[in-house]
Amino acid sequence: MMALPVEGEKIQIHSYKHNGNIHRVWQETMVLKATKNIIIGANEKTLVTESDGRTWLTREPSICYFHAEHWFNIICMLRDDGVYYYCNISSPFVFDNNCLKYIDYDLDVKVFPDMSHALLDEDEYEQHRLEMNYPEVIDKILQRNVKTLVSWIEQRRGPFAQDFIESWTNRYILLSEIQANKE
After folding, report:
1. What is the pLDDT along the chain (183 residues), one digit of tens a residue?
2. Is 1 part of a structural domain of the chain?
3. What is the CATH number of the domain that holds 13?
4. 24 is catalytic
5. Which of 53, 91, 96, 152 to pair with 14, CA 20 to 30 A apart?
6. Binding-site residues for Mg(2+)
């Protein structure tokens, strides 16, 4: 049984590649909800470290959605002109040593505020599929999950539902205020 973080706890997010190498680390994300299947978090201006050591700060508040059964995760970026979604095709998450961990499988779906979307990084996926020798079963799972993700977008399911962003942003604001008052 995987131990889970608690609401309000700050965790790291670790993204790996199929070969086991670290890809990217988000230093701090506040947990808004954690069950055995779903972790929803939020961060803003968090430090991100790339595999080559480069670092950068996220620019806007984001609500992050991770699932233990689906092979994708969804980052909802709250910008002045609307919500943009960056969806990573990835392994389901595991939570280990205060870190949410997943394997990034290169393919991404970017979703714009009008819900139009584009599949990105197909060349990178093909290159890594060959270099890291992704098994055929993984390739099939990933392709199937791209279709599932697109259907979620089109049906406005999960993080794409109209009330998702508002309710989780409000939760993040509330928890941030509670923590600020404790400090």
Report:
1. 568 999 999 999 999 999 999 999 999 999 999 999 999 999 999 999 999 999 999 999 999 999 999 999 999 999 999 999 999 999 999 999 999 999 999 999 999 999 999 999 999 999 999 999 999 999 999 999 999 999 999 999 999 998 999 999 999 999 999 988 988
2. no
3. 2.40.380.10
4. yes
5. 152
6. 88, 104, 106, 108, 121, 124
